Structure formats: structure tokens, C-alpha cells
Amino acid sequence: MPGDLDRIRYMSVQNVMNVNVISVRASDRVLECWLKLMEHEISGAPVLNDDGAFVGILSTTDILKWIFERYSKADALRKATSADGDSSATDMESLREITSSIRAVAESQVSSLQETGRPLYSLGANDSLDRALKLMAEFGVNRLPVVKEEKVIGIITRQDIIHMLAGRSKMR
Question: What is the fold, at CATH topology level, of the domain defined by 2-57+113-166?
């Protein structure tokens, strides 16, 4: 077994990566991207600029985080500017704020919500599976695009690695 683990760890990423990459554009509205992620039953995808170059990752966690941040600011403002009152009115106002936050994020362009200066993690096709595992563990990412000359040529996810270690074929 230890020999098998060493063989797997030093296996090339190109042997495990998925070449049928679902991606989104930085210029797309978040709503379109969110629906695309749900349609393909994935939790994230590489973000490409209009030239097709890799510029980021969009995940459902990012979308929910942006909604929560927007809601939290509105909620804090409401609490700071209103007197304690009717709890049902407060509940209705909270519902309005969350609805408004969802709408605002959904109508935004992906590029307007992504953090500038956020590090981009990616791999080359000849990188080892060990490197992929270390990047995923160190930076808490679930997927790594495989990039060649700024273009995404594949993607490797934690699920891909788990399936490979379990000896199962890819589900997608």
C-alpha cells in the first residue's frame, strides 16, 4: 500500500483532471453563472475574461458569502436606525433585506464582486497530484484549474481525487 500511495502522489495531474471544464465569464451576471453551476451540479467553476484567460474561481460559497455580507450591512444599518418595535415588522424587514440582497448580487457582474488581489491557485498539466493535494489543503480550495498559457485546459477537484483513490470512475 505505501508504494501505491507514493505512485499516486507523484502521478501527473493530467492523468486525473477533467478536460470537460464548465467555466463562466467575468462579464456574466451572477444569476446566469449560479444557474449554470446548478444545471451542471457543480459547486464552482473557473472564471475567464473575454479573451478566455483564467482570472478567478466562482463558487456557490462565494455567492452566498456576497449575499450574506450585503444582508449583514443592511441589517446592521436597520438596527442602528430603528427603535425596538413590532417583531413581525422586524421579521418582514429582514425578509425584504435578504430578498434585496439576493437580487442585488444576482444582477451583478461576476467581476464586480470578485476580490481584486486575491491569489489565484492553479496547476500545470505536468504538476504532481501531490502538489494539487498540498495546494488544496494549505489554501482550503476545492478545485484547481489546470492552466497552460493562461487558458484553462482542465480542472481537478477534491471529488476527482477521492474517486481516483477509491478506484471509481469519474461521475461527470
Answer: CBS-domain (3.10.580)
First to last CA, the chain: 28
pLDDT digits (tens, 9 = 90+) for 15-59: 889 999 999 999 999 999 999 999 999 999 999 999 999 999 999
| 123: amino acid identity, one letter | L
- The three three-digit cell numbers of residue 74, written as one number: 443592511
CB 57 within 8 A of CB 45: yes
The residue whose grid cell reads 477537484 is 157
CA separation (Å) from 31 to 36, 44, 73, 79?
9, 13, 21, 29
- How far are the Cα atoms of 79, 90, 112 from residue 27, in angstroms, in the given order? 35, 36, 9
Q: Are 154 and 21 in contact (CB under 8 A)?
A: yes
Domain boundaries of the chain, sorted by first residue: 2-57+113-166, 64-107
CA–CA gap between residue 92 and residue 82 (Å, rounded): 14
Task: Give pTM, 2 decimals.
Answer: 0.84
DSSP annotation of 55 reads: E
Give me the pLDDT at residue 140, please.
92
- What letter represents residue 124's amino acid? G
Q: Letter for the amino acid at 125?
A: A
